[in-house]
Amino acid sequence: MPDFESHSASAESRLLTRRKFLRGATASAFVATGLTGAYEWHYEGDRLVVTRADVHLPHWPREADGLRIGQLSDFHADYDHAVKRTSRAVAMLLREKPDIVLVTGDYVTSHYTRRLLAPTIDALKPLNEVPRGTYAVMGNHDHWGSNAQIATRLLRNAGITVLNNASVAIAGVPGAYIVGVDDPWCDKMDLDKALHRVPKHAPKLIAMHEPDFADVVGEGFDLQLSGHSHGGQIRVPGLPVIYVPGYSRQYPEGLQQAKNHLVYTTRGIGMVGPQVRVFCPPEVTLLTIRISPAPA
Predict the structure, then answer these.
(1) Which DSSP helix (H) or strand (E) runs through 53?
(2) Is the pTM of this model over 0.70?
(3) 63 DSSP 8-state letter
(4) In angstroms, what CA-CA distances link 42 with 39, 45, 91, 130, 263?
(5) Residues 114, 266, 204, 259: is their CA dihedral positive or negative?
(6) What is the pLDDT of residues 49-99, one digit of tens each?
(7) Measuring CA to CA, how many Å separate 105 from each of 73, 91, 93, 143, 279?
(8) Cα–Cα distances in Å, from 192 out to 96, 206, 217?
(9) CA 225 to each of CA 43, 115, 116, 146, 222: distance values in angstroms, whole numbers, following the listed order
(10) How far, rounded to the nearest angstrom, does the alpha carbon of residue 175 sit from its chain's CA centroid?
């Protein structure tokens, strides 16, 4: 198993990371101000969009063809308004009729907003209606804010399965599994535990918060679903992402090929730092598995 000690974050480094994110996002906001003029930032932060994409996994069981996987992430529901946005995102996703939903962490940002953790999880509760289940993992802010244990309990009480280094067979897809790992940046990932009793060559989805750990987990996975990046949160049309937090710089948005498997990184629902999005609307994700090669 790889050594993840170098990826753990001390309290001091976490504080520096937050400050760096705030500086980067604020600087990006000034750049965007000069280029976007009267663009409505607050409107953009609430302009939830559904992103639909086909994911070609030709070596998966034929029973997986057409499997619809929903994803929500990075709610950062630190205000009553953000909780309402989360409710809207859930309703939008349910209208897409996903077979499975993966929720990939960062429910609120810190212990200062813990009072909104229960309302946020309550907003996610309708996802327990999804036919083949809803599965959740923790993000870095869940641990940094000492909210991970509370979030795990609330999610389970809401009928959502938490995969903190655990796996589950995918109903209706023989031999295929969802593998969920606890946050790798916070040194909570335990792959040996997560893969216990999962056959080595079984088709596997992996859910983890930070996308760039795709190149750390090694071989054996087919598709990874992550969040964390917010898609950059503040973008300038025609230019690369201006700033994303650590461990989301290789795979900041959308479907990309990592070293060993495909990674899908959603832009997420909420915001950190300046409560604005520019040309980077919050995302409700629906992926459809296709048992065929990708088009040339």
Answers:
(1) strand 49-56
(2) yes
(3) G
(4) 9, 5, 21, 31, 29
(5) negative
(6) 999 999 999 999 999 999 999 999 999 999 999 999 999 999 999 999 999
(7) 6, 18, 17, 10, 23
(8) 34, 13, 11
(9) 27, 28, 25, 23, 10
(10) 24
pLDDT digits (tens, 9 = 90+) for 166-225: 999 999 999 999 999 999 999 999 999 999 999 999 999 999 999 999 999 999 999 999
Tokens standing for residue 175: 């031999």
Token pair in block for residue 209: 């918060």
Tokens 């090669």, located at residue: 293
Amino acid type, 113? T
Q: How many residues does the chain have?
A: 296
- List the structure tokens of 178: 């969802």
Structure tokens at 72: 């929500």
Owner of token pair 């959740």: 136
How many Å apart are CA 135 and CA 98, to the nearest integer?
13
Residue 37 tokens, joined: 């003029």
Shortest CA distance to 146 belongs to which of 109, 116, 121?
Answer: 109
